[in-house]
Amino acid sequence: MVKNVHGHTLDILGQSILAGRYAVGASLPPEPLLCEEFGVSRTVVREAIKSLVAKGLLFTGPKVGTRVLPDAHWNWFDPDVVAWQAQCGLTPEFLKDLQELRRVVEPAAVRLAAERATADDIAQIEEAYAGMKKAVEEGGDYVTYDMRFHQGLLQASHNRMLIQMSKALNALLRTSFEISTRIKDGTKNSLPLHRAVLNAVISHEPAKAERAIMVLIEGASEDIDQVLASRKKLPVVSGRPTPIKTQPKPRATSKLSVRTKGVSLAKTH
């Protein structure tokens, strides 16, 4: 979706703050300079700043101007803030907070889903799982269907507050899912874990569903720990989800193995 001038300006300013271009406690440049830099009107700049104040990134006041607030004030449940962090680059602290949040929220939500899921809820989660399975087998967009799977579980809880959290959680969870797609066999190994969660919800077994989602979450934590331990640069999550590729299946071939001592020939198929 192409963003309008306001949305584009908001993204640039938001990413600049999360990237550290404007330090905590520092003042933003005066409005005329921002207008000139972005090529937009003063109204657009003011609206963008107002949005950033609402998201907890900025503070405005008389005699102090517009200043950047510490990240403790930022609204980490705002999908824009999460997206800007992902685009600027994930950090170990961000991923640690994400995994702790998953351990708190998802088991309780899945337990409720196992108690309350309707036939329509289960059909939507089944559809998401089918998309994940197809991506693993044939390649393609795994992450989008993975997000739909987890969103479906939150919807199936029929708890209004959890449902309202789903949009923000999706933005957070995508960062974890993107890491799994970068690990060899990560998505393939997680697929049966998702199936176990879904089966427990279908059979309306709350305790079993809760245990299954914890296994899934711990698997994701291990993926993240593996990436962190490798000391490789953490992935930048932006734009469309990263599609996964399937490994080409080896063709059946006949080959001769010859032993150097003796004249033993073995044919394998």
Automatic annotation (TrEMBL):
SUPFAM superfamilies xref list: GntR ligand-binding domain-like, Winged helix' DNA-binding domain
One Pfam family, short name: FCD
Superkingdom, taxonomy of origin: Bacteria
InterPro entries: GntR_C, TF_FadR/GntR_C, Tscrpt_reg_HTH_GntR, WH-like_DNA-bd_sf, WH_DNA-bd_sf
Record's keyword terms, sorted: DNA-binding, Transcription, Transcription regulation
Disordered as annotated region, ranges: 237-269
Gene Ontology molecular function: DNA binding; DNA-binding transcription factor activity
SMART domains: FCD (SM00895), HTH_GNTR (SM00345)
Gene3D superfamilies named among the record's database cross-references: GntR ligand-binding domain-like, Winged helix-like DNA-binding domain superfamily/Winged helix DNA-binding domain
Span of domain HTH gntR-type: 3-71
Protein's UniProt name: GntR family transcriptional regulator
Classification of source organism: Bacteria, Pseudomonadati, Pseudomonadota, Betaproteobacteria, Burkholderiales
